[in-house]
Amino acid sequence: MRLYAPLSFAVLALTAFTAAAQTAPKPSASNAHPVKTRATASPIIAPTPPMGWNSWNFFAGKVTDKDIRAAADQIVATGMKDAGYIYVNIDDTWEGQRDADGVLHTNDKFPDMKALADYVHSKGLKLGIYSGPGSKTCAGFAASLDHEVQDAQLYASWGIDYLKYDLCSFRKDVMAAKAPDDKAEQMRLMVAAYDKMGNALKESGRPIVYSLCQYGWDAPWEWAPALGGNLWRTTDDVKANWMSIYDIVNQNAGLAKYAGPGHWNDPDMLEVGNGRLTLAENRSHFSMWAMLAAPLLAGNDLPNMKPEIKAILTNKAVIAIDQDKLGREGTRAYADGEVEVWTRRLAGGATAIAVLNVGSDRVASHPFHLSLAKLGLKGPDKGKDLWTGQEVTLTDNQPIELASHDILLVRIDAPK
Ligand code: GLA
Questions:
Q1: Which of 42, 100, 181, 348 has its CA 20 to 30 A from that of 335?
Q2: pTM over 0.85
Q3: Probe ligand 1: pick from 91, 94, 130, max atoms within 8 Å of CB?
Q4: Which of 89, 92, 233, 235, when mutated, tests ligand 1's pocket best, judged by the most ligand atoms within 8 Å of its CB?
Q5: Least confident window among 4-18, 94-108, 180-194, 356-370
Q6: Of 297, 322, 347, which closes a domain?
C-alpha cells in the first residue's frame, strides 16, 4: 500500500525503440549532500545481493507470526535455502505501541519477536524487519521518528538481521512540515534521516543489512552507500504484471555503475508466482533481476507454491548470475525492434547474455538476429541456455525466436 505518490517517473512505453531511447532516472542536481564516507565494516555486509523472502507482496497487512514461521519452514523444505534464500523479512504491520519509555512493542499478530527470531535462526535463516524515518509507516503503524537509536537497539536485542526503512510519512512529518517550499532542503532532511538510522544500526553492534526504501528519490545510488546503505529502491512499488516489471527494468538501465559488493540497486521484491504472470513473464522477471544484480526477495505464497514456480525461483544457474562475486550489474547493450539484449560481465571472464522480447507478439515471422559484434564478441561462442540447461553455440547474426515477454538467457564461458 502506498499512501503518497512518488515523484513522477517516465511513463511506460513498451516498444523497444522507446525503451532504448528512454534513459535511466537522472541523478538530481541536488546531490551534493554533505555526507561523510563511512569506513566499510568488516566483514562486508551483503557482498552479493541479499536473497530471501518478504511478506508484503503476498500477505500485505495480514501477515502474522505464524505466516513468518511457515515461510521459514517452506524455505527450508522447498530447497530455497539451499539455493541461497536466507532472509525471512517481515514487512509493514508488525508494529504495536510505544510504552512510557518510548520502547516499541509488537502488535497482537507478533506476540514475541525474540522467540520468532530464535525460531528463524534455528532453521539457519535470518530475520528482517521494517520501519521508516517518519512517525508512521506506509500502512499507518508506528515508525522510528525520534526513536532511531532506541529502535536499532531493540532490533539488535531481538536478533534482527535486516532492516527495510521506508520513507512514507517522513515526507509529511518532516520534509513538508520543515521545508514546505524548499526541495533541496527536503532532500537534505531525507538524506540526514537515512544517515541517522545508518549510524544507529552500526552502533547497535549487530551486522544488520540496511535497505533504503524511498522509491529512488534524489538518486539514492549516489549517496546511500556512504550512509551504510546495502541496497536502495530505485523505483516505485513493483506490481504483479508485465507492465510494472518491464517498466522497472527499463528504469534501471543506466544504474549499473552504482552497484557492487555491499551496495546494490534494488528494483523491488520479486513477484514471481504472483498475480497472473505467465510462465514466460515469471522467467523473464527472474532472469532480468539476476542480470540487474538485484536482491532476490521472493514474495509469493510459499506453502502453496506450484512446482513450475519453485523451478524458476530455485534455478541455480540463474541465481549464480545474480550472485556472481564480481558484483558487476548488467547493462542494456542494444535494442532492435521489440527485442532487447542485455549483457553482464561475470567473474573469471564469463558473460551472461539475455535476449528479451518485450513486445506482445511472438518474434517469429521476422526472426530477430542476434548481433554478437554489438556485444564485442566474435562468435562462435559456446555457452549454456540457463532455462533449458542445454549447451548452445551462438554465432553472429543467429536468428532467435522468442514468445511474447519470453527470454533467452545464456552464459558464455571465458574463451579458453
Ligand atoms: C511501501 C513500500 C512497499 C511496502 C509498503 C508497506 O509502499 O514501497 O514495499 O513496504 O510500503 O506499507
A1: 348
A2: yes
A3: 91
A4: 92
A5: 4-18
A6: 322
Enumerate the active-site residues.
Answer: 166, 237
Q: Calculate the alpha carbon distances from 341 to 73, 169, 240 in Å.
A: 38, 39, 23
CATH (domain of 390): 2.60.40.1180
Residues 246 and 378 in one domain: no
- Which atom from ligand 1 is nearest to the alpha carbon of 130? 10
Residue ranges making up the domain that contains 141:
51-322
Mean pLDDT of the chain: 90
Within this chain, do residues 108 and 129 fall inside the same structural domain, yes or no? yes
* pLDDT score recorded for residue 18: 32
Q: Whose CA is nearest to atom 9 of ligand 1?
A: 237
Q: 226 C-alpha vs ligand 1 centroid, how far in Å?
A: 24
> What residues are in contact with ligand 1 under a 6 Å CB criterion?
1-2, 56, 91-92, 137-139, 166, 213, 237
Could you identify the atom of ligand 1 that is nearest to the CA of residue 3? Answer: 7
Buried b (16+ CB within 10 A) or exposed e, 80-108: bbebbbbbbbbbbbbbeeeeeeeebebee
Question: Nearest to residue 367, comparing CAs of 343, 332, 337?
Answer: 337
One domain, residues 130 and 189: yes
Radius of gyration of the chain (CA): 21
Clarify whether residues 308 and 357 are in a common domain. Answer: no
For 11-57, the pLDDT digits (tens) are 232 233 233 333 334 334 344 454 544 554 457 999 999 999 999 99
Say what the pLDDT of residue 416 is: 61
